[in-house]
Amino acid sequence: MSLYALVSGGGSPGVTTAALALSLGWPGQVILAECDPSGGDILAGLFAGHLAARNGLLALAIEAGQNPDAAAAALWPQLIELDDERGRLLLAGISDPRQGTGLAPAWPVLAAALAAQPADVIADCGRLDPGGGPEPVLTVASLVVLVLRPSLRQVSRTRARVEMLTQILGGSGRLALLLVGEGVHGPREVSRALGVPVAATLPHDPKAAAVLSDGAGSRRGLQARPLIRAAGPAGRALREAAGVPSAGQPARPGPSAWEVNASL
Asked: Fewest Cβ atoms closer than 10 Å to its Cβ: which of 32, 76, 101, 177?
């Protein structure tokens, strides 16, 4: 299947929140992989720290170092279910940013393992800094998605990262933009300013974002919130941008990640 790498255009556009929303509304089975070398946020955020960080990216990296040929298969035991049908799965990121340096030699094997999965993979790669990110994940991705708010400040910050990614990828053909919220500038203006197409947009939805990012507020009814409703069409748009033909019925978000544990 396809690997989608999400990176920040600059500032704090909410890459992890966007990646989690997309995963909950994704049209098909999907693995959300927290690949941000500064650390993962979902266990501490959505799950409010109620799940121990025993499994995840670091454990996979250790296994991959011992047996690179088995890394793709070793990924599945590390996943956390986000719904009852195992349609949405989480590979939790590192819990301490100091672990990021140790991950550096493992990134090529980890990237190959993510790209070889039988499900779509959304990789939250965090902020793109020179020499500081999981570049092997970006290079094997079907589509690299810059997440930004349509403001002058974030468009200005994103311009340098477009140049960086163009160098890393050998061109801009696998680049796309995901706009979060509304701003003074519309999608056409942002696309024209950066020379990259806007593949999808997500609405500004503070209540849903608070649940996804910090576990704050009730999870009941989250599926009906504008952010989650928009995630399905946004996911289909990203698949089309990656050249994946539309097929089958969109997967319906399961309840367990945000309703079964609503009392947390």
From this structure: 101
Kindly report the pTM of this predicted structure.
Answer: 0.90
CA distance 21 to 16: 8
Domain that residue 124 falls in:
3-245
pLDDT band per the 50, 70, 90 thresholds, residue 133: low
pLDDT band (50, 70, 90) for residue 257:
very low
Query: Taking a C-beta distance cutoff of 8 angstroms, is the pair 166, 132 a contact?
Result: no
SS3 151: coil
254 domain residue, yes or no: no
What is the pLDDT, as a whole number, of residue 30? 97
Q: Is residue 264 part of a domain?
A: no
Q: What confidence tens digit (pLDDT) does each residue in 172-185 have?
A: 999 999 999 988 88
Residue found under tokens 């163009």: 166
> Is residue 255 in a domain?
no
Residues paired with residue 179 on neighbouring β-strands, in sequence order: 148, 201
Domain count, the chain: 1
> Which is nearest to 162 in space by CA: 22, 33, 7, 12?
7
Residue 261 lies in a domain: no
What CATH number did the domain enclosing 8 receive? 3.40.50.300
Tokens matching residue 58: 């670091």
What lies within 8 Å, CB to CB, of 174 at 6+ separation is: 141, 142, 143, 144, 242
